[in-house]
């Protein structure tokens, strides 16, 4: 059996309900879980450092909202998420901002890292979305300080890759074993650390071969994390119909394959599923 985890990043208080519904109704109707990496208290003025353009997840921003908006303030969105049990909420950053030009968890200030982690979890729980047990770092960037604090609080961390220079030295021996065995996922001090094979579901990739590349990734490992970003399907607040069709074709493909099971992140540690 192959396991697939669908991870969609950047749901926040400014995300339109109709965007998520349009994208993921074919998954929900087929009882295929979708893990939403959710920003607890989104900052509404985030721009990319390189070009000054607003972050993609602010595509639906209207007017001049407050500087930060907790997820719980969008009651329509929260009610929608809670009414669809095949959505799984995981914690994604805190503000999802840049600090001194770096992603907010790409820093060594332990006090600030702890504050962001704990307040983020508080906002999700306060909104009625549960206590998060899975963490996704913005831009896949963590330091040895932040990953250590994240691992203390969460059962599972999902990211793109792991680097020795970005983890505590005490982790290096276990990481070396992971590298030697070629495994994409590993465990450290009770925390599951999962990597993904890149963002196959991205408008930067060719649509005609997207499903084929996804199938190759699934075939190459026991458990595959597929990453998407809801706002990439609605750039300029307009639906990219060919891209949306690829996503919906993926739902049909996954549902039709008897050798593939789509799971939640929490299924990995609650059911002790094989990682590799």
Brief sketch in words of this structure:
The chain has 276 residues and is α/β, with parallel strands linked by helices. The chain has a single domain (2-270), classed as Glycoside hydrolase/deacetylase (TIM Barrel, Alpha-Beta Barrel), CATH 3.20.20.
So, the CATH homologous superfamily? Glycoside hydrolase/deacetylase
Quantity of strands, as a count: 13
Low-confidence stretches: none
**CATH topology category name:** TIM Barrel
Overall number of structural domains: 1
Which descriptors would you attach to this protein?
single chain; about 280 residues; alpha/beta; TIM Barrel; 9-stranded mixed beta sheet; two-stranded antiparallel ribbon; 8 helices; globular
Description:
The protein has eight helices and 13 strands. Strand 6 and strand 7 (102-103) form a beta hairpin. Helix 1 runs parallel beside helix 7 and helix 3 (110-126) packs parallel to helix 4 (144-153). The mean pLDDT is 96. Strands 1, 2, 5, 8, 9, 10, 11, 12 and 13 form a nine-stranded mixed sheet that branches. The chain has a two-stranded antiparallel sheet with strand order 3-4. It has a two-stranded antiparallel sheet with strand order 6-7. The N and C termini lie close together (11 Å). The protein is an alpha/beta fold and 276 residues long. Helices cover 33% and strands 21% of the residues. It is globular and about 50 Å long. It has a single domain (2-270), classed as Glycoside hydrolase/deacetylase (TIM Barrel). It has helices spanning 17-29, 75-83, 110-126, 144-153, 172-181, 210-220, 241-256, 265-270; strands at residues 2-11, 34-38, 41-43, 68-70, 87-92, 98-99, 102-103, 134-136, 156-159, 185-188, 191-195, 223-229, 260-262.
């Amino acid at each position: 059996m192959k396991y697939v985890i669908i991870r969609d990043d950047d749901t926040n208080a400014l995300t339109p309900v109709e965007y998520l519904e349009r994208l993921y109704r074919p998954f929900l109707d087929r009882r295929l879980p979708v893990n939403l990496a959710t920003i607890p208290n989104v900052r509404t003025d985030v721009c990319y450092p390189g070009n000054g353009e607003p972050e993609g997840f602010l595509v639906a921003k209207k007017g001049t909202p407050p500087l930060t908006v907790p997820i719980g303030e969008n009651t329509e969105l929260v009610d929608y998420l809670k009414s669809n049990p095949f959505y799984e909420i995981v914690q994604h950053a805190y503000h999802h901002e840049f600090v001194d030009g770096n992603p907010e968890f790409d820093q060594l200030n332990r006090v600030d890292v702890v504050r962001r982690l704990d307040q983020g979890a508080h906002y999700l729980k306060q909104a009625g979305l549960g206590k998060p047990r899975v963490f996704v770092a913005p831009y896949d960037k963590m330091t040895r300080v932040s990953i250590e604090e994240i691992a203390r609080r969460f059962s599972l961390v999902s990211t793109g890759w792991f680097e020795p220079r970005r983890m505590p030295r005490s982790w290096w021996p276990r990481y070396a074993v992971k590298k030697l065995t070629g495994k994409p996922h590993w465990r450290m001090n009770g925390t599951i650390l999962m990597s993904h094979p890149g963002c196959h579901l991205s408008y930067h990739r060719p649509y005609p071969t997207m499903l084929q590349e996804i199938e190759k990734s699934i075939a190459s490992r026991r458990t595959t994390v597929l990453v998407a970003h809801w706002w990439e399907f609605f750039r300029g607040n307009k639906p990219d119909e060919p891209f949306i069709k690829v996503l919906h074709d993926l739902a049909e493909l996954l549902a039709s394959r008897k050798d593939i099971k789509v799971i939640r992140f929490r299924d990995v540690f609650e059911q002790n599923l094989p990682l590799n």
